[in-house]
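tokens incoming
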């Protein structure tokens, strides 16, 4: 591993901290807006979980079809390359799976529930990374950490409750995840607005 000169210099570290603080302070409106939108979407998903689950499943089906079509086109464009038939078969299977989900969305909810569990686990890890960044500008970074912990716990509950929870869990858990992440992001953004970065030394 190559270490850049001055990487352990306290002055450089302080300047890096100030750079992050300046960025969060200057762009707090964007983060606050994103947090507010996530809260609204999350509340709607919790209020109508079946509709949210159905909409998510249909979106996933169309996404698979689109990805399959693009994959087929890409495979034919590079048909001289190794693995042509494997790439073509995988793309075709994606498109067929998407069509099956659109034909019977409820049949795809279990698969989508597994994917949601993976998403929640990833969201938890990302929230931990965000908390590490925003702690330079706010003492309430623990809210983002809490959001990450909740995401991980939701993923575990989601997996343990299969297959019975598949119909409603996608909408409810996705809504809870959006609400908690939105609140954490919104409060962190408001704290960054109230705490201007330290001036240069």
């Amino acid at each position: 591993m190559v270490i850049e000169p001055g990487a352990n210099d306290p002055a450089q570290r302080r300047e890096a901290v100030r750079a992050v603080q300046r960025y969060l302070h200057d762009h707090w409106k964007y983060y606050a807006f994103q947090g507010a939108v996530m809260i609204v979407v999350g509340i709607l998903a919790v209020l109508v979980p079946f509709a949210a689950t159905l909409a998510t499943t249909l979106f996933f089906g169309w996404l698979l079809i689109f990805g399959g079509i693009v994959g087929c086109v890409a495979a034919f464009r590079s048909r001289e390359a190794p693995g042509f038939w494997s790439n073509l078969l995988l793309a075709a299977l994606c498109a067929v799976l998407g069509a099956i989900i659109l034909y019977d969305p409820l049949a795809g909810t279990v698969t989508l529930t597994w994917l949601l569990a993976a998403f929640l686990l990833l969201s938890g890890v990302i929230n931990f990374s965000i908390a590490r960044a925003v702690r330079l500008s706010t003492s309430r970074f623990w809210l983002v950490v809490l959001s990450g912990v909740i995401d991980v716990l939701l993923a575990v509950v989601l997996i343990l409750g299969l297959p019975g929870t598949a119909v409603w869990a996608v909408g409810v858990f996705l809504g809870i995840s959006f609400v908690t992440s939105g609140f954490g992001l919104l409060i962190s953004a408001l704290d960054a607005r109230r705490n201007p970065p330290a001036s240069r030394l």
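note: The chain is about 80% helix and 0% strand.
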